Amino acid sequence: MFVLTVFISIYYVLVAVIISGLFTPVIINWSENTSYFYFSLNYTMNISFAKIIILTIIKKVFTFYLFSCIFFCLSLKLKHIFCYFIIIFLLAINTFRYITFYLTIFLNLPKIEQKYISTSYTILIFIIIPIICLLSILLSLKLIKRKDFL
Amino acid sequence: MCCNIRNKIQIFMTDIKMSIWFVIAYLVIIPFITLLMFVQSKSVMTQGISCMADYISSINHGYFLDMVIVPITLILIINIVSQNDTANFLIRQKKKVVWF
Question: What residue spans define the domains of chain B?
Fold first, then answer.
């Protein structure tokens, strides 16, 4: 499964590189004051394009692999449809953005996203995700016990 | 060990062959979805000069990615992997434990 996620992530990033080439001829301008990066984050950064691609591939592998693991763990106990619901709720609240944000700080990697995460975002992740997961798990258990799927 | 790896590669190739239509669909659909996502990103990038790195970093976050690309990729991964391993694992587990 891990090898598959690596292949998929590499393919996805390669496709993204090719398609982004259709939109702009500039490869990287994050060290200039006229760049979009400077306007959105208010600081410049000296980083090579290859590093960004490698970081993106690592993030994609991490996301795809972790979600696949969650799916398999849940599908051993629950029906597949509820696993999809739970995972889509998790995705909707951008959990992995939060995790990767603190991982980049912990591992001292260059930050290529926003500087901070707001408190409302933290509340969403620590309150809404557990409630929704718990509700869908309870619902699925109840439906399985009533044999609604048969 | 070498034999084991060869065996695993053989299983992996068989799984891909069995779900070849999913793989082809994924390879065709993903560029279109990425194109749509970048059109959306371009509409946001109004200030300054955008570059390829901006588009690449934009695929790390965003609701469009999370709600469309990750579920599609999950479906593909699950379809390929579950051809062999998960089915056998579940059968083995179900023999030992009574679920609910």
Answer: 2-96
